User: Which sequence fits this backbone?
Protein backbone atom coordinates (compact mmCIF):
# COMPACT_ATOMS: atom_id res chain seq x y z
CA UNK A 1 0.00 0.00 0.00
CA UNK A 2 2.82 2.42 0.81
CA UNK A 3 4.25 1.99 -2.69
CA UNK A 4 0.93 2.94 -4.22
CA UNK A 5 0.58 5.99 -1.99
CA UNK A 6 4.15 7.04 -2.66
CA UNK A 7 3.58 6.76 -6.39
CA UNK A 8 0.55 9.05 -6.15
CA UNK A 9 2.51 11.56 -4.10
CA UNK A 10 4.96 12.15 -6.93
CA UNK A 11 2.23 13.24 -9.34
CA UNK A 12 2.75 16.72 -10.75
CA UNK A 13 5.35 19.31 -9.92
CA UNK A 14 7.96 19.02 -7.16
CA UNK A 15 6.83 20.45 -3.85
CA UNK A 16 9.76 22.69 -2.96
CA UNK A 17 13.16 23.67 -4.22
CA UNK A 18 16.02 21.48 -3.10
CA UNK A 19 13.79 19.17 -1.08
CA UNK A 20 13.65 15.41 -1.25
CA UNK A 21 10.54 13.71 -2.54
CA UNK A 22 8.32 12.52 0.27
CA UNK A 23 4.99 10.80 0.49
CA UNK A 24 1.91 12.94 0.98
CA UNK A 25 0.11 9.97 2.43
CA UNK A 26 0.57 11.15 6.02
CA UNK A 27 -2.57 11.10 8.07
CA UNK A 28 -4.78 14.01 7.23
CA UNK A 29 -6.87 13.58 10.35
CA UNK A 30 -7.68 17.07 11.58
CA UNK A 31 -5.63 18.20 14.51
CA UNK A 32 -6.62 21.02 16.77
CA UNK A 33 -4.55 24.08 15.96
CA UNK A 34 -2.64 25.51 18.86
CA UNK A 35 -2.98 29.18 19.71
CA UNK A 36 0.71 29.79 19.38
CA UNK A 37 1.52 32.83 21.45
CA UNK A 38 5.12 33.33 22.52
CA UNK A 39 6.03 32.18 26.00
CA UNK A 40 3.60 29.25 25.98
CA UNK A 41 6.14 27.12 27.85
CA UNK A 42 8.89 24.79 26.67
CA UNK A 43 8.11 21.33 25.38
CA UNK A 44 10.99 19.17 26.55
CA UNK A 45 12.56 17.19 23.75
CA UNK A 46 10.80 18.99 20.91
CA UNK A 47 13.12 19.87 18.05
CA UNK A 48 12.64 23.34 16.58
CA UNK A 49 11.33 23.41 13.01
CA UNK A 50 12.21 27.04 12.51
CA UNK A 51 12.78 30.39 14.13
CA UNK A 52 9.95 32.89 13.96
CA UNK A 53 12.19 35.09 11.80
CA UNK A 54 12.31 32.28 9.18
CA UNK A 55 8.59 32.72 8.46
CA UNK A 56 7.87 35.92 6.50
CA UNK A 57 5.01 38.12 7.67
CA UNK A 58 2.13 37.79 5.20
CA UNK A 59 3.70 34.59 3.82
CA UNK A 60 4.99 31.25 4.94
CA UNK A 61 7.44 28.42 4.52
CA UNK A 62 6.99 24.81 3.41
CA UNK A 63 8.61 22.03 5.46
CA UNK A 64 8.56 19.15 3.00
CA UNK A 65 10.01 16.47 5.30
CA UNK A 66 7.36 17.22 7.94
CA UNK A 67 4.60 17.64 5.30
CA UNK A 68 3.82 20.98 6.87
CA UNK A 69 3.35 24.62 5.89
CA UNK A 70 3.83 27.32 8.53
CA UNK A 71 2.41 30.76 7.80
CA UNK A 72 2.50 34.15 9.51
CA UNK A 73 -0.66 35.94 8.34
CA UNK A 74 -0.01 38.93 10.62
CA UNK A 75 2.96 39.88 12.78
CA UNK A 76 3.40 37.33 15.55
CA UNK A 77 0.50 35.10 14.45
CA UNK A 78 1.66 31.66 13.27
CA UNK A 79 -0.51 28.96 11.68
CA UNK A 80 0.32 25.49 10.40
CA UNK A 81 -1.33 23.28 7.80
CA UNK A 82 -0.74 20.00 6.03
CA UNK A 83 1.30 20.53 2.86
CA UNK A 84 -0.74 17.88 0.99
CA UNK A 85 -3.23 19.47 -1.39
CA UNK A 86 -6.76 18.25 -0.66
CA UNK A 87 -7.49 17.84 -4.38
CA UNK A 88 -5.17 14.96 -5.35
CA UNK A 89 -2.56 14.87 -2.57
CA UNK A 90 0.26 16.68 -4.37
CA UNK A 91 2.60 18.67 -2.15
CA UNK A 92 1.96 22.40 -2.26
CA UNK A 93 4.94 24.19 -3.80
CA UNK A 94 4.89 27.84 -2.75
CA UNK A 95 3.45 30.47 -0.45
CA UNK A 96 2.90 33.82 -2.17
CA UNK A 97 0.37 36.62 -2.33
CA UNK A 98 -1.49 35.47 0.79
CA UNK A 99 -2.04 31.94 -0.52
CA UNK A 100 -0.52 28.47 -0.28
CA UNK A 101 -0.32 27.20 -3.87
CA UNK A 102 -0.32 23.76 -5.47
CA UNK A 103 1.25 23.59 -8.92
CA UNK A 104 -0.31 20.23 -9.85
CA UNK A 105 -3.73 21.63 -10.73
CA UNK A 106 -3.65 25.23 -9.52
CA UNK A 107 -5.45 25.03 -6.17
CA UNK A 108 -4.82 27.91 -3.76
CA UNK A 109 -5.49 28.10 -0.03
CA UNK A 110 -5.62 31.10 2.37
CA UNK A 111 -2.61 31.47 4.67
CA UNK A 112 -4.97 32.56 7.47
CA UNK A 113 -7.09 29.42 7.77
CA UNK A 114 -6.20 27.00 4.95
CA UNK A 115 -9.56 27.52 3.22
CA UNK A 116 -9.84 27.14 -0.55
CA UNK A 117 -9.39 30.35 -2.55
CA UNK A 118 -9.23 28.71 -5.97
CA UNK A 119 -9.97 25.09 -6.96
CA UNK A 120 -10.14 22.43 -8.09
CA UNK A 121 -9.63 21.54 -4.40
CA UNK A 122 -12.91 21.84 -2.50
CA UNK A 123 -11.70 21.14 1.05
CA UNK A 124 -9.38 23.29 3.20
CA UNK A 125 -5.87 22.22 4.15
CA UNK A 126 -6.05 20.47 7.54
CA UNK A 127 -4.64 22.57 10.38
CA UNK A 128 -1.70 21.18 12.34
CA UNK A 129 -0.61 22.01 15.87
CA UNK A 130 2.55 24.02 16.45
CA UNK A 131 3.92 25.86 19.43
CA UNK A 132 5.88 29.11 19.53
CA UNK A 133 8.21 29.48 22.49
CA UNK A 134 10.22 32.69 22.28
CA UNK A 135 11.62 32.66 18.74
CA UNK A 136 11.38 28.87 18.29
CA UNK A 137 8.59 27.04 16.44
CA UNK A 138 8.03 23.35 17.21
CA UNK A 139 5.40 20.73 16.52
CA UNK A 140 2.95 20.62 19.41
Assistant:
Amino acid sequence: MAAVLTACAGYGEPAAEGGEASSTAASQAPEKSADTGAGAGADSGAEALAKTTDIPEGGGKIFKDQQLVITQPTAGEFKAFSSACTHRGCDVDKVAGGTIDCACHGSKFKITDGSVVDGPADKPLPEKSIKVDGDSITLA
User: Anything to note?
Assistant: The radius of gyration is 14 Å. The beta strands are 50-51, 59-63, 68-72, 79-82, 94-96, 99-101, 108-110, 116-118, 130-133, 136-139.
